[in-house]
Each structure stands twice: as C-alpha cells, then as structure tokens.
Amino acid sequence: MQKSFLILLSLFAIGCSNPKVFVLNEKEESRYFVQKLVNTAFENDLIGESPLIVVNGTSFKYNKKQDTILLPLKKLDIITLDFLNKNSSRIIYNEKENDGAIIITSKIQK
C-alpha cells in the first residue's frame, strides 16, 4: 500500500512540473512567442524547469523562484532562438544546474 502511494505521489509530482513562463517585453499576444517554443522543448525533454538563458553570449540571470520571467526583448529583436539539451549546456556553460539552455541571438547588442 505504501509503495503504491509513493508511486502515485511521484507521478503526480512529475505531471505537475512545468517550465517557467518566459514572456517578452510586449503587450500583444506575441509576448508569448518564446514560451511556445520553450514548452515544446520542455515536452521533448530538451530543457528542464529552469533553463539557463543566454542572450547574445551572456547569461541572463533571473530569479528561479519566480514563475514568470520577463525577457527584455521584443519579438522583432530576436534573430535566432535555439535550445541546448541538458548535457550540452552543462558542458559548454559549466553550470552546476543541468536544466538545458535557451540561446537567443538578438539585434540588440548590450
């Protein structure tokens, strides 16, 4: 009985885990442009709940305790948006966490 309860509880926890919501600095529905792609990568197990965000080669620091993260970009500013799987991002960016990475190249160079 206890064993089946633990299995049910772990399935519930896995099923309820979602990635963070990444929104762009826009007021229209295009503010969720990145989020649609992030959800697809999450569903394909490329990234975890709190992936590393890299904008123009620089890590974007965000509060991983928040559910919604505002990216300082507009959809028209984004040139490319790529994903690195969990293992590759750890090797390339030497991050302790292994949640994958979202690589954004934009027109705005900061």
Keywords:
110 residues; alpha/beta; 4-stranded mixed sheet; two-stranded parallel sheet; 3 helices; disordered N terminus; Lipoprotein
What does this structure look like?
This is Lipoprotein. It comes from Flavobacterium anhuiense. The structure is a single chain. The protein is α/β, with parallel strands linked by helices and 110 residues long. The protein has one domain (2-106). 31% of the residues lie in helices and 25% in strands. The chain is built from 3 helices and 6 strands. The strands form 2 sheets. It has a 4-stranded mixed sheet with strand order 3-2-6-5. A hairpin with a 2-residue loop joins strand 2 (52-55) and strand 3 (58-60). The N and C termini lie far apart (57 Å). Residues 3-16 have low confidence and may be disordered.
The radius of gyration computed from the alpha-carbon positions, rounded to a whole number of angstroms, is 16 Å
| Main beta sheet strand tally, sense and closure | 4 strands, mixed
- The unreliable regions are 3-16
Mean pLDDT level: 81
Q: What is the SS-derived class?
A: alpha/beta
- β-strand number: 6
Separation of the first and last Cα atoms: 57 Å
**What strand order characterises the main sheet?**
3-2-6-5
Topology pattern, helix = H, strand = E: HEHEEEEHE
Count of domain modules: 1
Measured as a percent range, the helix fraction is 25-40%
- Tell me, what's the shape? globular
What is the strand content? 25-35%
What is the overall number of helices? 3
